[in-house]
Amino acid sequence: MTQSLPLAIVAGAGPGLGNTLLSRFKDRGYQVVGLNRSLPSKTDFDIRVVDLTDEQATNAVIASLIKEYGAPKVVIHNTAQLVIKPLAETTAGDFEACWRSMALSAFVLAKSLMQPMVDNGGGTFIVSGATASLRGSAKFSAFSSAKFALRGLTQSLAREFQPQGVHVVHSILDGIIDTDNSRSLHSMDPDKMMKPEDIAAVYFGLCEQPRSTWTHECDLRPFDGSF
Amino acid sequence: MTQSLPLAIVAGAGPGLGNTLLSRFKDRGYQVVGLNRSLPSKTDFDIRVVDLTDEQATNAVIASLIKEYGAPKVVIHNTAQLVIKPLAETTAGDFEACWRSMALSAFVLAKSLMQPMVDNGGGTFIVSGATASLRGSAKFSAFSSAKFALRGLTQSLAREFQPQGVHVVHSILDGIIDTDNSRSLHSMDPDKMMKPEDIAAVYFGLCEQPRSTWTHECDLRPFDGSF
Amino acid sequence: MTQSLPLAIVAGAGPGLGNTLLSRFKDRGYQVVGLNRSLPSKTDFDIRVVDLTDEQATNAVIASLIKEYGAPKVVIHNTAQLVIKPLAETTAGDFEACWRSMALSAFVLAKSLMQPMVDNGGGTFIVSGATASLRGSAKFSAFSSAKFALRGLTQSLAREFQPQGVHVVHSILDGIIDTDNSRSLHSMDPDKMMKPEDIAAVYFGLCEQPRSTWTHECDLRPFDGSF
Amino acid sequence: MTQSLPLAIVAGAGPGLGNTLLSRFKDRGYQVVGLNRSLPSKTDFDIRVVDLTDEQATNAVIASLIKEYGAPKVVIHNTAQLVIKPLAETTAGDFEACWRSMALSAFVLAKSLMQPMVDNGGGTFIVSGATASLRGSAKFSAFSSAKFALRGLTQSLAREFQPQGVHVVHSILDGIIDTDNSRSLHSMDPDKMMKPEDIAAVYFGLCEQPRSTWTHECDLRPFDGSF
């Protein structure tokens, strides 16, 4: 095990925000590792393929990373599965898939990492929320319910682990992230989309907060967003 | 199918609040049916045993009830599964069981009933939340996450179905309900516990609200509760 | 002092909701008295003209009412002053007038009445909030700020006085109330407005809640309102 | 008018956080000016004495600052007046003083500065909230009501001015700030207090946020704080 660089783990490491987060933390001197359900077609980073809802598989990957690099100083949970459908078209499978992808995965990840982080002197655990974390809307029954679940989990983790030295953040991304994918899906002016590198800068700043002033929840949105 | 009495369904129909709700709505002229995972050892009511996380089984029971009594005018979701453990002792199984019991069951129930209620001229769908619906706490990672999930779902249902005539309520029970079980578990003065019959009276009042003034969220707590 | 009937005081007793509240509580057996800044041009009720931001004047009126009827069982604070202007057009006078009308008046009223209500065995103190109580919006800087102030005050009163027997409620009226005035101001379908008599029925129900299940905050809105 | 350095204005510029904010922004290349009700006994900075609830006096001071330095790029509202008393001991004067000190002062300041900031290409307007901004408590009727008022105002300003280029932030300081004054008032371990320089670093970071990712609300608290 080498410990020359602090470890940052990004769960949900596809193109877009995940990739940018890896890039930012690498540039600032972190050893970075991505966790993803599948291997992105193109990446410059060390991505470990794992289903974060599979407790055994996740524990094995995390144990191996800790053995290589020590417990992480930074963990970012950034998985997403979007379902926008009226209730009649939303299946129990959709409802469960959203929850597994966004809430159960965060639970399994936290369970595998919180104690090692505490034992290693603390760190930062950031979770990405969305507009739907604060407000359920028509056609968002599956997505909102899962994002609410993630927020409730994150608050619980903050209240359990902050006194033990792990800073837990729920960051609400209240807008469309400017990715190739978003530009093809939305006709929105890209000037009104959130830049992945700007989000990554905020996340990096949250990891640098001294423990006398930890933010648990903050929102981020483009200047022009109605909210 | 007889339609002499409007139908009220109570999901989570064990002793305590479930049983009291059945009693209250029966007294006020409803045909009442309880849904429960298992048959309570003692009940005066028509209880159908069904696993509400099983979509097929739930649809079959609901279809049969609608055939007998017509679509319900009142549906109360009142299932609960309490887990209070530090993260290290909370298993992924606990985390999932809470969510299945409280969030997935509400989704499956809503999906089976919302359209028939709309087609039948509307009605009221009430969900029981808890303190943990608004605030995650240490040792409540599984329970809070599931209760948050339920709240996000309920808000989404309100915004989709209230314009179609179904009143959707998220009622936050912020206290200990006075049941035989609570009295044996807690040393609390019963005068500071919530009486099931008082909760039932509030739920009945919510079902009577005219559509010009529908409450979506309200809290209920004993007068002496610190909150 | 006669005590044959319990006293209900409605502050903000003009035509519309105030008048309807007086009517409802009178019908249900209360001695009702309205407090208003000016005498409505037409009313069937006992209206006392008082500036509720004037502590001395308010104390004098309340002392006289207590002498006549005993401490009230029900107090409803229902004053409103609407300002909708961009910041540039909102004067410090507007900002202060909203706050005096809605927040300071509630403080002065509570201060004059809470202790007598406690001494008299308790009662209910209801405050009318609005959409703007939960969310500040462009052009609502004066109105939202005052409604937020009222909510913060009401929460504080609840936490101080509920353990002493006075039920304190913050009721969020999230819609347009159907009055002659609203119909002339808005082109909205009256079917989508809140009926004063329906609001009054809810307020009456809140006053009847047994102390094992007190609601502190609830929202009310028409079935069709987007929210 | 020289424009070599961007202007940062700190309203509430006494010893403690105000002074530290001036120091931080000065170190990072800002021209800094403090506004205060009275001249601190000791300060290294340019402090203008002004009553921010006096619209004329405030406008005069701001006009003079804009003439000297141009419209500010950063404005921090950090005034506070703490009242902790049961309702019976809280006077209408206390209630009004809290509101004038914290809410009216922010309104007057915003009104004098928002348009010049818009015209000057934008900037950041930060307001300091507190635990009491989110939750009213017994003995905090005056303080909570004023802090709620400030939050409602700030949300309204954000929704009106962010689309015009002024970033508006409500920062919730959920803890005791470590100052000489706090150490003499509280027996709390200083390790559990918020360091003024850490808060200042967060505020500086908020001012640096690019407009694709603006935070409107964030909380800050010490790692060990129960919350």
UniProtKB/TrEMBL annotation, chains A, B, C, D:
List the InterPro entries hit by this protein, alphabetically.
Answer: NAD(P)-bd_dom_sf, SDR_fam
Report the Pfam families cross-referenced here. Answer: adh_short
Mind telling me what this protein is named? SDR family NAD(P)-dependent oxidoreductase
For this protein, the record's PANTHER family field holds: OXIDOREDUCTASE, SHORT CHAIN DEHYDROGENASE/REDUCTASE FAMILY (AFU_ORTHOLOGUE AFUA_5G14000) (PTHR43431), OXIDOREDUCTASE, SHORT CHAIN DEHYDROGENASE_REDUCTASE FAMILY (AFU_ORTHOLOGUE AFUA_5G14000) (PTHR43431:SF7)
Source organism of the structure? Psychromonas arctica
